From TrEMBL:
SMART domains: S_TKc. Its EC number is 2.7.11.1. Residues 15-277 form the Protein kinase domain. Keywords: ATP-binding, Kinase, Nucleotide-binding, Serine/threonine-protein kinase, Transferase. ATP binds at residue 44. Residues 282-307 are annotated as: Disordered. This is non-specific serine/threonine protein kinase.
């Protein structure tokens, strides 16, 4: 039960209220039903006391303008704003209802994130910011509570267009609503802000995910504000020695006090993060494209998910991954599923979320022994139709491939090579399969050049 919750209204506008979802500094949020469109929606009803002493007509007009601007932000990583109206004289926003969990709850439930898990979340946040900034909209309140993790692994950012009036413009007894923990210095001072303020806030979130604490901690408002305005946070390498060195420089630039020293755009910060983890650059269309997924044919036997992977196998992988990364495991699995073509691909992607190297090797040993795919791809039970005999690959060729692969993926190379050798019909096929476990195209090319039989 949510403490001090107001009585549940039966209806707000045309929307039938179903339950209270939460409360925030700005007001209360309900799950409701839209009878016209026949869909669930989220309604944010603004607190009455926030409007006291203000020109109501003026503030309602500004709310409406912000809602109209936010309504133009149509993006897979943004919680859509559907409508704006008033209820008994108080403004409310109607938004897409998202079945997910906020990032702040995941942070509270588990350990710090692995570098790749944290970057995966932030890249989706930057995709949302890039869309909004392109429309001239600054979020102003990027924080874990406004970042939602969906069951399918996607991330959605909430409160675009709404948070503009939930910060310094709406006051209670002359004080800002909320906390400065994720504010930029210029926002905390009440100065004019631009998109670089959002990038600072995103940097704070990234630092917290990686370090397990906020960069500007404090026991109260005044202490947090003082550190935000006057102190430099501890270097990430102090809090997280295992993090790639490039992440520290990204955070130093993102958290610069002077906006001119920060990244110029969400896209620039995203690409710098990718480079820090040696991930391939994003396609120009990746941030805003819509994908139409054709359904796969149903599995002949056994229970398979819509992705074609066995449900029991996925549950087993998720459970074993959670031992290393905590409750974020479910979202990492669902996100990796969208890119994986095999169990080996899936595990190769997930293992990058695990630190240190010996833990990665342990995870690969645990999962590659039994997890397979269903639904027309690799089958769990192969006894019904045995595979044709494979050409025997010389042991020295396997050892050479393992030594070359270990340089890029570490100690799990032995497991990956063993699995690939069982399925490969030739040494050339073995090298090609192993190359798929290397993210960087340049590194894949270096690896393949290690094959002495590769055509020159």
């Amino acid at each position: 039960m949510i403490p001090n919750a107001p009585a549940l209204p039966e209806q707000i506008g045309r929307y039938r209220v179903e339950r209270l979802v939460g409360r925030g500094a700005m007001g209360v949020i309900y799950r409701a039903h839209d009878p016209v469109i026949d869909r669930p929606v989220a309604i944010k009803l603004v607190r009455t006391d926030l409007l006291e002493g203000m020109d109501r007509a003026d503030i309602l007009a500004r709310f409406q303008r912000e809602a109209q601007a936010a309504g133009r932000c149509v993006h897979p990583n943004i919680v859509a704003v559907h409508d704006f109206a008033t209820h008994e004289g108080n403004p409310f926003f109607v938004m897409e209802f998202v079945e997910g969990v906020s990032l702040d709850r995941v942070i509270a439930d588990g350990p710090s994130f692995s570098p790749s898990a944290a970057v995966d979340v932030l890249l989706q946040v930057f995709a949302a910011l890039g869309c909004a900034h392109g429309l001239g909209i600054v979020h102003r309140d990027i924080k874990p509570a406004n970042v939602l993790l969906l069951p399918d692994g996607r991330v959605k950012v909430a409160d675009f267009g709404i948070s503009r009036l939930s910060g310094s413009e709406l006051t209670q007894s002359g004080a800002m609503v909320g906390t400065p923990s994720y504010m930029s210095p210029e926002q905390c001072r009440g100065d004019t802000i631009d998109l670089r303020s959002d990038l600072f806030s995103a940097g704070v979130v990234l630092y917290e995910l990686l370090a397990g604490e906020r960069p500007f901690p404090g026991r109260n408002f005044a202490e947090i504000t003082y550190r935000l305005l006057n102190q430099v946070p501890a270097d990430l390498t102090v809090r997280r020695p295992d993090a790639p060195p490039g992440l520290s420089s990204v955070l130093q630039r993102a958290l610069a006090k002077d906006p001119r020293e920060r990244f110029a755009s969400a896209a620039e910060m995203a690409e710098t993060l990718r480079a820090a983890l040696r991930w391939p650059a994003a396609s120009p269309a990746d941030s805003d494209r819509t994908e139409l997924l054709r359904p796969r044919p149903p599995a002949a036997t056994g229970r398979a998910t819509t992705t074609g992977f066995g449900e029991s196998a996925l549950s087993d992988i998720e459970r074993k991954l959670a031992r290393h990364v905590g409750p974020i495991a479910h979202y990492l699995v669902q996100s990796a599923l969208r890119r994986a073509g095999s169990i080996e691909d899936l595990c190769g992607s997930l293992v990058q979320s695990i630190e240190p190297a010996d833990a990665r090797a342990q995870f690969m040993r645990e999962v590659l022994g039994g997890a397979t795919m269903e639904g027309g791809r690799t089958q769990v039970d192969r006894t019904a139709s045995p595979e044709p005999a494979r050409t025997q690959i010389p042991a020295e060729e396997i050892e050479r491939a393992e030594r070359a692969l270990r340089h890029f993926v570490g100690p799990m190379a032995r497991i990956l090579v063993r699995r690939a050798a069982e399925k490969s019909g030739s040494a050339a096929e073995l090298w090609r399969q192993l190359a798929t476990h290397i993210d960087s195209a340049a590194d894949r090319d270096v690896f393949l050049r290690s094959d002495p039989d590769r055509p020159k």
